[in-house]
Design brief:
Strand order of the largest sheet: 2-1-3-4-5
Distance between the termini: 36 Å
Shape: elongated
Structural class: alpha+beta
Helix content: 25-40%
Strand content: 15-25%
Largest sheet: 5 strands, parallel
Radius of gyration: 27 Å
């Protein structure tokens, strides 16, 4: 079975906002990913950071500084380059080809036709394969070359802005980055010049995609009055270790890990699906507040009647204990298996819904 080709990534450099927006829209409709640079500085930074498939430059931008982008594109792995000239001139065309441009397009030209010519050229080239680094932080893995993010082995879909922010935080190696630094990384990706408020929104959505919590950050934490960094505190960390966490995330049964205060420190993928709640809504909460356990008679299993509290107090492991929990807004009959882990400091709570009880051992 043939794989689906990666869409081309086109960097557009033009200081005319309306022309830039029109061409970006046409290219997106044609199936391309785009970055738009309204200044030469942003374009040069995007060339290095985003490694585009192809570069389109309006050479008259900033009084002729667009030539800097052309030369930079050719010096960086001979990136295919299209030059746009607003005033047709044979001398300009000769200079563009001498500088290494693959095509020179004179305006005015319909944006859709221009996008078609750009896509035709991208079909004859392939995005340069770079050997970028692979970063890891508490089960979160970002592969720069493959442009992928995995959380405990599960692929996470991110927007271009979210990927750029996460990559920049990884590259900072734990240092705090202010919002202007992060803005520089997404400026070419937003249709309008982004604001510091836009960074906060992108980070909030990124955390949501990772199942992270602002109150107990595991992956990204805010530094008040400054910006963001990879989470360095132990808040929200399950103390199991990345390898153990990867194994638990792959288990088919819903599973929680709680501390002696019965605060949830870890939840696997099966549990988030069963409870129909995100990690950020579960981790850090008391397990009783999340599960709302009841016995077979409908009596609340709280206080001294709590199974987990009995295990924490010294009882032996409990296996296949019948109860009911609140999952996705409805009562579900389940069976609990509760045991001590990590030197008795933590408890594992395995939840087996009825559909899984008949499974062969």
């Amino acid at each position: 079975m043939s794989s689906v080709p990666e869409p081309p990534f086109v960097l557009l450099a033009d200081d005319d906002p309306s022309a830039l927006t029109e061409l970006r829209t046409a290219l997106r409709l044609a199936g391309a990913q785009t970055a738009g640079a309204r200044s030469v500085k942003v374009a040069l930074d995007a060339l290095v950071f985003h490694a585009p498939t192809l570069v389109v430059v309006q050479i008259a931008m900033e009084n002729g500084k667009g030539w800097e982008v052309v030369h930079a594109a050719r010096s960086q792995g001979q990136l295919p380059t299209i030059v746009i000239e607003r005033s047709p001139d044979p001398g300009t065309r000769r200079a563009a080809f001498a500088a290494g441009a693959d095509d020179v397009i004179a305006l005015p030209l319909d944006a859709t036709e221009l996008a078609t010519r750009i896509m035709a050229l991208t079909g004859r080239v392939r995005r340069a394969v770079t050997s970028g680094p692979v970063y890891r932080h508490r089960g979160l893995v970002l592969d720069v070359s493959a442009h992928t993010v995995h959380l405990h082995g599960r692929a996470i879909d991110l927007t271009a802005q979210q990927f750029a922010i996460l990559r920049t935080l990884f590259e900072a190696n734990g240092a705090t980055l202010d919002r202007p630094r992060l803005l520089a990384r997404i400026e070419s990706l937003d249709d309008e010049p982004p604001s510091e408020r836009a960074i906060d929104l992108h980070v909030t959505r990124l955390r949501r995609r990772l199942g992270d919590s602002a109150k107990e950050p595991r992956y990204i934490e805010a530094v008040y009055g400054v910006g963001y960094r990879l989470a360095t505190s132990e808040a929200g960390v399950n103390a199991l270790g990345d390898d153990a966490e990867d194994v638990l995330c792959a288990l088919p049964d819903p599973l929680l890990v709680v501390d002696r205060l019965l605060r949830i420190r870890f939840v696997n993928d099966a549990a988030t699906r069963f409870l129909a709640r995100g990690r950020s809504e579960i981790v850090g909460q008391r397990c009783g507040d999340v599960l709302e356990c009841q016995d077979c008679r409908g009596l609340d299993l709280d206080g001294p009647r709590c199974f987990a509290l009995a295990i924490s107090g010294g009882a032996s492991t409990l296996r296949d204990v019948p109860a009911s929990v609140l999952a996705d807004g409805a009562r579900e009959d389940v069976r609990f298996t509760i045991a001590r882990v990590q030197g008795d400091e933590l408890l594992s709570i395995e939840i087996r819904p009825p559909a899984l009880e008949t499974r062969p051992a």
